[in-house]
Amino acid sequence: MDAPGWPVLLDEYLNHLLVEKGLSPNTLQAYRRDLLKFLRYLEGLSIPVTEAQQAHVLGFIRDLRERGLSARSTARALVSVRSLYRFLALRGKLNRDPTLNVEAPKLPRSLPKSLAYTDVEALLGAPDTKTVLGLRDRAMLELLYATGLRASELVQLRVTDLDLTVGVLTAFGKGAKERPVPVGRQAVQWVTRYLNESRPVLCLDKSSDLLFVRKGAKGITRQGFWKIVKRHGRTAGIENALSPHVLRHSFATHLLEHGADLRSVQLMLGHSDISTTQIYTHVSRQRLSRVYREMHPRA
């Protein structure tokens, strides 16, 4: 493999994902990391990327596992490699796709973690709403639980994406897909308070299109919001692992437990495939079974 060959190819492919697929910066970084590992693995074998065989792909997967990478991370790396070869095949740079018939590692079926209602109430009540930042944090947490947005979708919301009069927002999910999501009455009230009381203080004399900001009208990163959730989780005394995604899971689980249909939950979460949403039905069934065992006198 000539030295400048695969870096140029990698940049060309990532640009394709950005421009034509509309993938988020976080997803692009994940693809870049996985593909760098694969391309450097081939480079160590002196194999050009367009001449790799199935045995080389299998060797790469085996190498990842031997280095302690989890089955989930290894499967994600295979998805990245498979996607690269499909790109090369479509552009006529490949005679045979070496990832054909390569199976991904078996993944353990893990159910999403969600909070009990009492924990959600404790978390929402944790921020000190007498302070500028506390009021902002309460509005963010309320909106996240009310809509089930991804953390990246929440921090990228613009003021114009919200219609507080109607009680709906426009979210932009993976692949820049747009979807409307209802916003509950309590979330509307807290976001309205934030807009009137906190946001002007945080923006000072600067302007920003973003809905949620920190001092100086600067945006909040996904990692920054993760820290906000963790901090208020500790205040609320929530001992279980807590993240923005747990609140998203809680939103979906609690909707289904109260009778929402699966298709509606799928649309609100922005899942392209309903099979992704169906995992929440298993969570609801597990909880129903536990309640039955605990409450029924002859269970």
Keywords for this entry:
three-stranded antiparallel β-sheet, two-stranded antiparallel ribbon, 13 helices, 5 strands, single chain, mainly alpha, 299 residues
Task: Please outline the helices and strands.
Elements: H1 5-19, H2 25-44, H3 54-66, H4 71-90, H5 117-124, H6 132-147, H7 151-155, E1 162-163, E2 168-172, E3 178-182, H8 185-203, E4 213-214, E5 218-219, H9 222-236, H10 244-257, H11 262-269, H12 274-277, H13 279-295
Antiparallel strand pairs: 1-2, 2-3, 4-5
Helix pairs in contact: 1-2, 2-4, 3-4, 5-9, 6-8, 6-10, 10-13
The percent range for strand residues is 5-15%
Structural class: mainly alpha
Give the helix tally: 13
Total strands: the figure is 5
- Helix proportion range: 55-70%
Instruction: Enumerate the strands of the largest sheet in spatial order, edge to edge or round the barrel.
Output: 1-2-3
Radius of gyration: 23 Å
Distance between the termini: 66 Å
Low-confidence blocks of residues: none
Q: What is the ordering of alpha helices and beta strands?
A: HHHHHHHEEEHEEHHHHH
Largest sheet composition: 3 strands, antiparallel
Mean pLDDT: 86
What is the approximate shape? elongated
How would you describe the overall organization of this protein?
The protein is mainly α. The protein is built from 13 helices and five strands. The strands form two sheets. The chain has a three-stranded antiparallel sheet with strand order 1-2-3. The chain has a two-stranded antiparallel sheet with strand order 4-5. A hairpin with a 4-residue loop joins strand 1 and strand 2 (168-172). Helix 6 runs antiparallel to helix 8 (185-203) and helix 10 packs across helix 13 (279-295). It is elongated, with a radius of gyration of 23 Å. The termini are far apart. The model has no long low-confidence stretch (mean pLDDT 86).
